[in-house]
Design goal:
The protein has 244 residues and is an alpha+beta fold. It is built from two helices and 15 strands. The protein has two domains: 2-101, Class II Histocompatibility Antigen, M Beta Chain, Chain B, domain 1; 114-205, Immunoglobulins (Immunoglobulin-like, Sandwich), CATH 2.60.40.10. The relative contact order is 0.13. It is a single-pass type I membrane protein.
Length: 244
Amino acid sequence: MMMMKMMMKSSELVVFVSSVLCVSAVVLHEDLHIRGCSDSDGEDAYTLDVEELWYADFINKKGVYPLPSFFSSFRYNEGTYEQAVADQQICRSNLKNSRIGMKDLPEENDAPSSLIIYSRDDLELGQKNTLICHVAGFYPAPVKVHWTKNGENVTEGTSINVPYPNKDGSFQQISRLEFTPQQGDMYSCSVEHPALEEPLTRLWDVQVQQPSVGPAVFCGLGLTIGLLGVAAGTFFLIKGNECS
């Protein structure tokens, strides 16, 4: 299956092509190759079940495997990055032709329909973790994501994956923030998109429940009172039998 999306933003036209490489009647895994370009930028990435396996870093001129080494030892053939560079030339040629053919078409924008923020792992104060900001349902791609901590902008430890196409033609993206939770800290994830008049923001605060002995104490107290009641009842029953 091949899907092509042509997107206009101001005077810039972006062409995205994504190929579904592994599909069956019962879908076990979805393997996508995402390729895109604009006048000033480009991207080429492979994903598996929404996880980004490899992408071309055209700034540093190399291919990058963003997942930790323990996740997968799989590696693409040598020359994958060089092929991505060659594909960019084809993409820009298609871009030029598309701009001519679409010059009179109205611009299309869909604002994000979903924005959620959550932690990757269970929270433990003082233990490193990752906040995930997931935005979905927007068109065209990409979005811009900004993080704050206690009202201050945060850039260190942040990352964002390439736009991932949904089956309805919209996109989703995930931004991550490496952080160490401390009780009471407040984080926010803000998303900018051409279809939004102002950034869409979600807040997330560190709330770790401290261990409580209250229920155990009350349960223990109730059990003790119950046992005393049984003992008292038994005592008076025995005494009553002795008197009769």
